[in-house]
Known about the structure:
This protein is an alpha/beta fold. 40% of the residues lie in helices and 28% in strands. The strands form six sheets. Strands 1-13-4-3-2-7-12 form a seven-stranded mixed β-sheet, sandwiched between helices. A five-stranded mixed β-sheet has the order 17-16-20-18-19, covered by helices on one side.
Amino acid sequence: MIRRTLTFEWWWLxxxxxxxxxxxxxxxxxxxxxxxxxxxxxxxxxxxxxxxxGRDYVTILAVGVDDSEGRGLADTIIAAVVRPRTGxxxxxAIPRDSRVHVPSGVGVRRINEAHSFGGLPLIIETAELLLGxxxxxxxxxxxxxxxxxxxxxxxxxxxxxxxxYYRARAQGLLIDxxxxxxxxxxxxxxxxxxxxxxxxxxxxxxxxxxxxxxLVARRMLSPDSVMRGKxxxxxxxxxxxTNLTVADVISLMKLVDGVGPEVIRMATLSGRPRIIQxxxxxxxxxxxxxxxxDRVLWGQGVSVTVLNGTDVSGLAARAAARLEEHGCDIVExxxxxxxxxxxxxxxxxxxAKRAERVASWLGGGAIAVAPDGDSVADVTVILGRDLVxxxx
Length: 392
């Protein structure tokens, strides 16, 4: 079983920070190297080469590290599969409290601890062991560096929705914000994004992170940020570790810009909370984890909701059976709220090609595109009377 989640969270922040900082770093170093032709050729060679080596798909692990307690724990762990040729991007978040086997003699631990034992190499190895495939690329962002990033941008304007106060003396953390529009520096802006001590808990935090990330991205793209290129480049060196080239990052950003982040297929591994030796852990089910990997990352089959928009009994079940023959994952079978003369096939990921494939398998239907990041299914089929006499 997988749990849908908002597509932004820290994952989108990782890509905004890594992508724009790498690009600005490249710009700064490129300007410096003008007086040194050989150095210039070495730097710009990755830009001229094909993105991702011209491959059909690549795997990426994004890790956000929280070192506020001096332990280097991984606060965010996201596996992604990018298909440059088709524009498809899918991502699977691994909860930081997931109980996993950490190799290199560490043993069974929470996955976020893998980073504290062996840094980026060990958490990559742990995630590969859990998900069953290797990663081609990685991006590691030090969350403390996000503070420096926002400061390098000159701060960000945020309309704080409510009074936010939280103190954790052991972590040296203080969040103290008044409601209303205000200009926040890096530390206070990060406090806004991380606050979750209210009735909404993590859901409220995710919504605020989404808002915060949009504001940071907009600030990065503002004309005056270009003048801050040198400072942003320096911040990148301390904040981001990645083996992506400049060409890779530019290609990735174009893909996201082309499809829109709200149509990226994304889910979070789910499990059963347990207390083990006094520690709160999430017990993952091996079969459900593999199912999530297959469905979300590898896209094995289009997930479809089939609704009967006619008075013909069993029509939705027959259509669903036909779609299953073509490898579709049927999420739900039910009745539509109203009867339809024409079958409508709605693509929730913002790309009509999935709906077009479903239409070809059904033998007809009108295509509609309605991006919905909260929809469990990729496509919703509302069957109309036009398919009643088709034998399907």
